[in-house]
Amino acid sequence: METQNIPDGYWADASGNLVPVSKIKPIDQIRNDMVYELCRAAALQSYNLARFKIGAMAEVANFCALSLDQY
C-alpha cells in the first residue's frame, strides 16, 4: 500500500483524492475526529487485553506446574 503525502489544508477521501478542508462540512470533520478517537481507544483496549491474556495464561501455567509438583 502506498502512502500519500497530504499537503496542509487537504484531506484524502476514500478514493485517495485530495479535498480542501474548506470544502468539508464541519459535521463531517467532527465525525472523522470521533471515529479516529474511537479507533485509537479500541486499539489501546486491544493492546491491554492482549497483555492481560498473556499474563493470565502465564499464571495458569504456573499454577498447573505447581499442581503437578504436588500431585
Written account of the structure:
- This protein has one helix spanning 26-70; strands at 10-12, 18-20.
- With 71 residues, it is mainly alpha-helical.
- The chain has a two-stranded antiparallel sheet.
- A hairpin with a 5-residue loop joins strand 1 and strand 2 (18-20).
- It is rod-shaped.
- The termini are far apart.
- The model has no long low-confidence stretch (mean pLDDT 94).
Distance N to C terminus: 55 Å
Our Rg estimate from Cα atoms comes to: 23 Å
How is the main sheet built?
A: 2 strands, antiparallel
Order of strands across the biggest sheet? Answer: 1-2
Name the helicity range. 55-70%
SSE ordering? EEH
Based on secondary structure, the structural category is mainly alpha
Low-confidence stretches: none
Mean pLDDT: 94
Query: How many helices in DSSP terms?
Result: 1
The shape, in one word, is rod-shaped
For the secondary structure, the number of strands is 2
Strand content: 5-15%
Give a short summary of the structure.
The chain has 71 residues and is mostly helical. The protein has one helix at 26-70; strands at residues 10-12, 18-20.
Q: What's the structural blueprint in terms of helices and strands?
A:
Layout: E1 10-12, E2 18-20, H1 26-70
Antiparallel strand pairs: 1-2
